[in-house]
Amino acid sequence: MFKLLDRLRLDRSATTRSGGEIAFISLLFTLVAVAVTGLVIYGAYFGLITALILRSAFFSLVASGALLVLGLASERTWLRWLCYGLAVFALVPGYHLWASYIDIIMRGAMATPPDLWIFAGLLAVLFVLVWQALGWALVVMMAAAILYAWFGYLIPGEYGHGGYDLRRLASTLMLSTEGIYGVPMGVAVEYIFLFALLGGLLMKIGTGEVFVDLARGLTGRMRGGPGLSAALSSALLGTINGSAVANVVTTGTFTIPLMKRVGYTPTLAGAVEAAASSAGQILPPVMGAAAFLMAEIIGVPYAQIALAALIPGLLYVLTLMVAVWLEAGRLGLERDAQAGLALLRDTLLRRGYLLLPLIGLIGFLAAGYTPTRAAVMCLVLGLLISPWRRETRIGLVDLALVCRDTLLAVMPIVAAVAAAGAVIGVLNLTGLGLMLSGLIVDLGNGNLFAILLLTALVSFLLGMGLPTSAAYLLLAVLVAPALTRLGMEPIVAHMFIFYYGLASAITPPVALAAYAAASISGGDANRTAFEAVRLGFVKLLVPFLFATMPALLMVGTPVEIALATALAVIGTVGLTVAFAGWCGRPTTWPERLVLAAASLLVVWPTPVASTDVITLSARCAGLVLFVMVGLRLAGSISDTSQVKRKA
Hints:
- This protein has helices spanning 2-8, 19-46, 51-73, 77-89, 91-99, 101-106, 113-134, 136-151, 166-173, 183-205, 207-219, 225-241, 244-261, 266-277, 289-298, 302-331, 341-351, 356-366, 371-385, 396-430, 432-443, 448-465, 468-478, 480-484, 490-502, 512-521, 525-535, 538-548, 558-580, 589-602, 613-646.
- By secondary structure, the protein is mainly α.
- The chain folds into three domains: 18-182, no CATH class; 188-573, no CATH class; 574-635.
- The chain is globular.
- The relative contact order is 0.10.
- The chain crosses the membrane at residues 22-45, 52-72, 78-98, 118-151, 191-215, 227-249, 305-326, 354-385, 406-427, 447-464, 471-491, 497-520, 532-555, 561-581, 616-635.
- This is TRAP transporter, 4TM/12TM fusion protein.
- It is a multi-pass membrane protein.
- Part of the tripartite ATP-independent periplasmic (TRAP) transport system.
């Protein structure tokens, strides 16, 4: 029994707690995690629970568990007991909506006095949860939204309104699927938790280690192989968890020391890992949590979102690996002596079966299964293959730990989508969202490029202060309509804000992935972030590419998609070489400037099928400049090689 409690112990707990309190809260949290897992899997596979009941029960359980953990981790006594008290009350709204659902429907979701008290308590739970889990940014935004809804009658002009009392707010935000329990919460319970659970199970049985060894087998014998291995393994791992920081912590503990051992500086090693880890948010099949939200908001199957994200995601990984390879050549780095085809063969023969759940996920989605049903099937497949070898075998306690770790991972996301749902509910209730979208169009004066720049700036700023999911949700309401009003395809508009909303993983001043990598590498945090931006600049460039060439998102004919891909590869690789300053030999500043100019000319901002004189001239000029610089570099490299052979 003591060994069991020790395994379930929460590592995030404060050191001043008594052993009994830590053990009790840890056990209670694990039981809540198992209950959440059971609820999610039942709802995903059978689909028999009404949306409002499922979402409210899910949030009640997650909020209760989260407040238990946050209370245990707090050093302030009053805050600890406040969190414990709210953890108990958090269960009330879910039970109330379940028990009173028929009555709520019969009275048209109009709030009664008991509803108002429960709504006030729900707001207290939400404010404290968001404050402790995410900080002040979303708390201030929620408070501003509710105050605007209440006191809007005091605001003159077109941005004012008649005002909404507590009863109307309770009806919208708690008793319907338009607020806290809206589409974002539905995505959290139907997709985000389920795929996080699948990723946690795959990590537990060792799939993450398989990815690392596969990457080392493929790239380890190349110059600077550990850097390429880090880029590829982190990108592969990201396909099953979608969290940049989690990727850094998981793979960085292995790849960063290996990179430093062969000659990478601490700053560069951390930057490579941070840039590579952020690839998981944009790579199918799982991507980040916001991708599931996008599918629901646009109203298209998730498989279509994943397919649209494929070319830009692969483009990012390709250019990142080219950048790492160029850096390795510039620094004259060594190879990974323990990697190579032998490691690749051994990994596939001994542990290749651990990739079956991921292959199965792609197969189930291609066969037309819903993402939720496909995820449940892959969970079962993962459990079936885990006993095949002793080192991958897991027991009931391990499964409970997977449930616990999944709940720990999704707590901030659930808090974010609940808060964003409340803000979106107010925006829809008051009509402010449409007015702000119109304001963006007016500021851009109807010019698409100007509006794209404004959108990128707003998306980037929101991404710095908010989690990706919350930032995307608000941008989808406030900004995306401005782009679609100009004729942009919805999937292009939403993918644009999605990319810029998550760029803050590597861009200062937030750069959580870069700072996590710096803590492992021992490099300077800000320098690591700037290096990560230099290596992963494509994440900032590619949204403008698919905004002007939608074929990169599979919007167009096969010929247009192939041509757009070829142009994007040439342009981004050219910019990568220009930024690196090395291509077989050090490149001069004029050569770098010509390469950068050629790259931008090749990806001239017009649709790929455009045949006007300006577009054709720009792209032809870019290709000619590429050929000229390429011949110059090839000639000088050949001359250098001949001199070395004669010497």
